[in-house]
Amino acid sequence: MKITSRRFRLAAVLTAMALGLCMPVGAQTVPAAATANTTGPSGSGVNNALLYAVAWKQTAAEYRALYYQGFNVARMHVELALAKRKPGDKPLAVVTDMDDTILHPLNYWGHLINENKDYFDDPVWDEWIPANKVTASPGSQEFLKFCADNGVEVFYVTSRDQGEKTYDYAMGHLKHLGFPYADTKHLTVLRDTSNKEKRQDEIMKDFNVVVFLGDNLNDFRRKYYIKSNVDERIKMMETDREKYGRNYIIFPNPTDGHWLAAIYGESEPPPTNANREIMKKAATRSAWKVN
Questions:
Q1: What is the pLDDT of residue 213?
Q2: DSSP class of residue 273?
Q3: Which bin fits 7, alpha (ψ -120 to 50), beta or left (φ > 0)?
Q4: Exposed, middle or buried by CB within 10 Å (0-12, 13-18, 19+), for 91?
């Protein structure tokens, strides 16, 4: 899932951040200064805003199950499309995002926490990419191999920017993990934009795209990139409700995405207590109130 011309740089300020601010009913009020994150060279990192999200990614069986579920659903649609295909029809294809869809950068996020960094860090990311420490998401290799074995072409469309070697790094990740169609025809790397729609439309002219795979709504159509607020974005999503699980297969990503931009109005807000209060309000949009 790539959201800006580089990767969407705000790491997930999830509900965990809000929990660090919440106080039980009747508890003593904590001064605002005390709510500051204690990470950093002198901090222990235990208040890192990434802890809940990354711990879930690293350990939850449910997280992996959602990937298997997504690829199983995608496979069912491909099988159906193969069964229905007639002579003269367009060839079949699948279009997929890369990071947090078929690729997992879990050890990158773990490294950030060990370094007491609670937001996405560009220099670390750009150093991590060529290190080739990426792993395959659960079920991705099996699904894409199934597509290749049945003549269904796979197109990779991603947004990254690590300089002149960006494309080589992305291709290296595909080849390192043995993904099919790891060639220049099937890999598109967008360095200057996160608008995938133009390339997607080009592919659809020549192929019947069975499913699109992504971890962000912006991986499907550009309209989701609009910097709308939370309610507007949810309303926009509802207009495509029939497409999810049919045309669009979305995978879980609690560490970054446009859902954060919808909360803050910008993609990379600074780690201030004011912004932590904004996240707290988002986390308590619906909350039980004691009479």
A1: 98
A2: H
A3: beta
A4: exposed
And the tokens for 95? 């279009």
**Helical pair 106-114 and 122-131, crossing angle rounded to 10 deg:** 130
Question: Hey, what are 238's tokens?
Answer: 């509802």
Tell me how far apart the alpha carbons of residues 43 and 55 are, in angstroms, rounded to a whole number.
Answer: 19
The tokens describing 146, both together, are 């199934």
Residues in Cβ contact with 199 at an 8 Å cutoff, skipping those fewer than 6 apart = 157, 188, 190
Confidence of residue 5 (pLDDT cuts 50, 70, 90): very low
Q: Helices in the chain by DSSP H: which ranges?
A: 15-19, 51-59, 61-84, 106-114, 122-131, 140-149, 166-176, 197-206, 230-238, 258-264, 273-283
Q: Which two tokens stand for residue 204?
A: 């659809």
pLDDT, tens digit (0-9, with 9 covering 90-100), for 76-117: 999 999 999 999 999 999 999 999 999 999 999 899 889 887
Q: What is the DSSP string of 205-261?
A: HHSEEEEEEESSGGGT-GGGGS---HHHHHHHHHTTTTTBTTTEEE---SSSSHHHH
Phi, psi of 237 (to 5 degrees): -60, -40
Task: Tell me the pairing of strands 135-136 and 103-104.
Answer: antiparallel
3-state secondary structure of 98: coil
Mean residue pLDDT across the chain: 83
The CATH architecture that domain 15-283 belongs to is: 3-Layer(aba) Sandwich (3.40)
Domain map (residue ranges) of the chain: 15-283
Owner of token pair 């995405």: 257
